[in-house]
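Hey,
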Amino acid sequence: MTARTDRAFRIAPSILSADFARLGEEVAAVEAAGADLLHFDVMDNHYVPNLTVGPLVCASLRPRTKLPIDVHLMVKPVDRLVPEFARAGANLISFHPEASEHVDRTIALIRESGCKAGLAFNPATPLGFLDHTLDKLDLVLLMSVNPGFGGQQFIASVLPKIAEARGRIAKSGRDIWLEVDGGVRADNIAEIAKAGADTFVAGSAIFGAKDYAATVRDMRTRLAAS
């Protein structure tokens, strides 16, 4: 597996690992550190066993950052929250196919709400859903941990799945981002990029570091060498 040299790489800190008592400051800090996106892990204690942030948090942070807001909906049902996050300032919204009764309709709803659309896959969810949706997507999000909690270890068996998704995207001829979320760190980001990813969600790896900017620089250096 080798990386395509023409791919742009994007680093997306996940606010799930931020200090929520200082959330506005944390967002400003990762923007200053060189982040490309701001990732929102939205959990409902139903589809996944945790409860995190809603549209009000997104709306409160939207004026505090110029970064695109990348919302990952781990909720079921999903359709009601799509317009609310779009109104709150989201730029991109991803959801899990298991959380929608009508996947194509949910993708259309995201686009009609003015956002880019992504489809998210748990480690054991097959990529077959892309057979009928890839021509409508802007992003494919692969979970490299089981969703619900931050700070988990990267599941290495996801690497071939990343390569498979990259092959599907290349065959489509479309400019679709391939994002990986879960256990991404400086010491494995190059391997993930070599498998085919171009967008990397990093929570504890960045927000758990003493120097956010140094961590982002380290990740970029390793990506450049991949």
